[in-house]
Design goal:
With 214 residues, the protein is of the alpha/beta class. Helix content is 36%, strand content 16%. The chain is built from 7 helices and 8 strands. Strands 3-2-1-4-5-6-7-8 form an 8-stranded mixed sheet, with helices on both faces. Helix 3 links the parallel strand 1 and strand 2. It is globular. The protein starts with a helix and ends with a strand.
């Protein structure tokens, strides 16, 4: 279902993947700015589109007055991600190597590792990333689906993160029913009216790029 929505947005409604990522990342940054004071943010970037959303969010957080840095254990090979990374670097956003050290110094962690397509077991190097982030005592913000969760069943394997904030994109996924954090936001304001009605997407206030669900 989640993948078919993205396919429809691109095939039927004319969006490009770059547009979807830009709006998604902006909504993640706006959701963070709605609840957390400005401070140091480390964004853990995964290998796919969820990671791309995180790169966009980092750039917008920089514009919003936060101090973001990136933990990007597997550097990109696709041009899209290379461009997004270059944009971050052009904003002075550093790529760090010591996750545990940076987490100790940060105020917020953004989980942009795995998205709705995650299945199976968590492989290296991301198994160590999730292990480091579990029980850190800092608020974690997960993009669309907490890393390690099944998109429908939630944290069924018990290895996933337990975020303080979940930012669902386009529409909440089934796993969001298992979310037990403080803040649940909806972002990715790009659904045309007919699709928004079909998915039951709530009304966004004014020009806001996000809406709080919980």
């Amino acid at each position: 279902m989640a993948q078919s929505i993205d396919v429809d947005l691109m095939a039927k409604h004319g969006y490009s993947i770059e547009q979807l990522m830009e709006l998604a990342g902006l909504s993640v940054a706006a959701s963070i700015a709605s609840e957390y004071p400005k401070g140091r943010v480390i964004l853990c970037i995964g290998p796919g589109n969820n990671g791309g959303d995180g790169l966009v969010a980092a750039r917008h957080l920089c514009h919003f007055g936060y101090q973001p840095c990136l933990y990007y254990p597997v550097q990109p090979t696709k041009d899209l991600y290379k461009r997004l990374l270059l944009q971050c670097q052009s904003h002075g956003i550093a790529v760090v190597n010591d996750l545990a050290d940076e987490v100790a110094k940060c105020d917020i962690v953004v989980d942009a590792i795995f998205g709705f397509s995650f299945k199976g077991t968590v492989r290296a190097p991301y198994d160590k990333v999730l292990s480091t982030l579990q029980g850190i005592g800092k608020p974690i913000v997960s993009i669309d689906v907490p890393s390690g969760w099944d998109v429908e069943l939630g944290n069924s394997q018990g290895v996933g993160l337990c975020p303080d904030m979940l930012v669902s994109l386009t529409a909440p996924k089934l796993c969001a029913e298992h979310f037990a954090g403080r803040y649940h936001y909806l972002g990715g304001r790009f659904a045309p009216p007919d699709l928004a009605r079909e998915l039951g997407i709530p009304h966004y206030p004014g020009s806001s790029q996000c809406v709080r669900l919980l």
